[in-house]
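Most newcomers find our protein records easier to grasp once they have seen one. A record pairs a protein's sequence with a compact description of its fold. An example says more than a description, so a record of this kind follows:
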Amino acid sequence: MIPLHHDSCFTFHFADDRIIPRFHLEGVGAGQQVKVFKIEPTTGKRLGLLATTAVGKDGWVDLSEPISVRGGEAFIAVPEGQPPEPNRK
């Protein structure tokens, strides 16, 4: 069966301030490259590249430097080989 919709990225939204040293990407294989972008939470517009790294064992992404987020902020993780999403306006 072919799904009707498939997101090409993983979106993380936060209600509280957090320091993120690692996160999990379900279904992404170890060794696959991932780019992490800060986004505008309401529009999804990319605001800047935060990190480029590789997925580790069992889909875990360990960041070389933790990402600090404030309540209400968000970021996306885009696995390499996924079509880039256009910036939404």
User: Anything to note?
Assistant: The two ends are 32 Å apart (CA to CA). The longest strand covers residues 60-69. The chain has no helices and six strands. Confidence is low (pLDDT under 50) at residues 83-89.
